[in-house]
Amino acid sequence: MKNYYFKDVTSCEMCGIPSTNHKVMGMRLNTSQGKNPKAKIGIAVGVIRCTNCGLVYSSPQPIPKDIQDHYGTPPEEYWKAHYFEWTATYFKTQIDFVKTRINFSDGMKALDIGAGLGKAMLSFKHYGFEAYGLEPSIPFYERAIDKMGIDPERLKLGTIEDLEYDDNSFDFITFGAVVEHLYSPKLCIEKALKWLKPGGLIHIEVPSSKWLISKYMNAYFRIRGTSYVTNLSPMHVPFHLYEFDLKSFQVLGNRIGYSIDHYEYSVCEIYFIPRFLHPLLRWYMKKTNTGMQLTVYLRKNN
User: Could you read off the pLDDT of 283-292 as tens digits, one per residue?
Assistant: First the structure.
């Protein structure tokens, strides 16, 4: 049984606006809800939307006493054997894009925050970067070194909140599927920004708070007479604490000193909806920027 303490959220993490007038969307259970959450027993927390920047967050925020309660699971329980195989196509699209935006030269330094098994670090090295990473999960950190051959001198064990690098050290930093897990995205992005060289780029992939399918699912729950919503999963896998709007990153940039160099929305997988509707939904989500994932590239101001 995981041990939590609960922290009330008094202001938006990204834009700083007090939470007094934020919109209560509903409740989220500490287990997978399925299609009938009323039939399940558990702990529920509120799901709130910032009315200024669109950030979706839980309040109170459930925080585990030990981060390993969330992320200390052996990677073999997450992934099949083939996931431990690295190929040169891994993260190549993002690396190729960044190289065109930072006037790349061999030996530039890249940092992977939440390095997992170290596959992005292997790609960084393959494509000419000096690769560094940090990873909070003990089992993932160990597998990255033992199974993937990551240099332990280049990979730190710990959270971004606890670790340090020299200021202005890196040309490129990536948070791939990480920021939605962080209890203080502002603090962590601001910290990474210190480690980034002026003009460097930070890459972030997060769940979008405009995802069309979640709106359909929430409407379904309302029709069934419940106050539950499908957004977030703060107390069960994958432990998502936030969903983000593009405006969330725009206003945070004004606060801490970066500009948005590029952004894009990705449709990704479609759940719950009958398969014959998927082509139409994919077309609509692509046209309206209502897909599951938001990707942003942040440039540090000079």
Answer: 999 999 999 9
Domains, the chain, with CATH or none:
4-68+210-243 (no CATH), 74-208+261-300 (3.40.50.150)
Instruction: Show the 3-state SS of the chain.
Output: CCCEEEECCCECCCCCCEHHHCEEEEEEECCCCCCCHHHCCCCEEEEEECCCCCCEEEECEEEECCCHHHHCCCHHHCCCHHHHCCCCCCCHHHHHHHHHHCCCCCCCEEEEECCCCCHHHHHHHHCCCEEEEEECCHHHHHHHHHCCCCCCCCEEECCCCCCCCCCCCEEEEEEECCHHHCCCHHHHHHHHHHHEEEEEEEEEEEEECCCHHHHHHHHHHHHCCCCECCCCCCCCCCCCCEEECHHHHHHHHHHHCEEEEEEEEECCCCCCCCHHHHHHHHHHHHHHCCCCEEEEEEEECC
pTM of the model: 0.94
Q: What is the pLDDT of residues 94-132, one digit of tens each?
A: 999 999 999 999 999 999 999 999 999 999 999 999 999
